[in-house]
Amino acid sequence: MEFRNLDMNDLEEIIALQNAVYDSLEDKEVLETLTKEEFAEIIRQGYIIGVFKGDVLVATRSMYIPSADEPEHLADDAGISDKSRVIYSEITFIDPASRGQGMQTEMGRELIRRVRESGDFNHIMTTVMPGNIPSLKDKFRLGFKIVKTTYKYGGKKRHVMQLNLFDAPVPTGESENVHFQDTEWMLANSEVYIGDNLAGEYIIYYKK
């Protein structure tokens, strides 16, 4: 799979792909769309790649460097004090006709490799809607852990997920298998448990 760095010349095509993906979704809440200005900033930061079929963009994935004073900074949810060492795993779009080829995870691995090699960051953070199983599977495959379940973005229930680039935690506490829909347990216990993996419809949690 060949990846291409995206630039300002690709901006309109990125927006068109976002719109096509959004229109294809039955549950629109699983996707937090971005504005043209937000994509332009991501392009300027340099962590955005795409997959093309011929001259057509069929998939894109990106990372975003948040400002330290950004509202609802995910570092606060994870107890990370040095926000300058945090980057976000941002949005992923795959054209509906090109799904099922592993593009999402392969693009994620490539971006994580680039972020790690830069040496500029220690943590990658992201949020996932609890019912979005494909996104949860993707994040767990890449090594992310659920460090908190809370309300974000105006009251939307979200898992806050974290990938430590250089010192990944090894689970040692007692485990608990929790159904992915049991978000009340997650809201009540995420201060003392870490979501480590997904087994069928259950998330495997370990006590911190």
From TrEMBL:
Residues 1-166 form the N-acetyltransferase domain. Gene3D superfamilies: 3.40.630.30. InterPro entries: Acyl_CoA_acyltransferase, GNAT_dom. It comes from Salinicoccus sediminis. This is N-acetyltransferase domain-containing protein. GO terms for molecular function: acyltransferase activity, transferring groups other than amino-acyl groups. Signal peptide: none annotated.
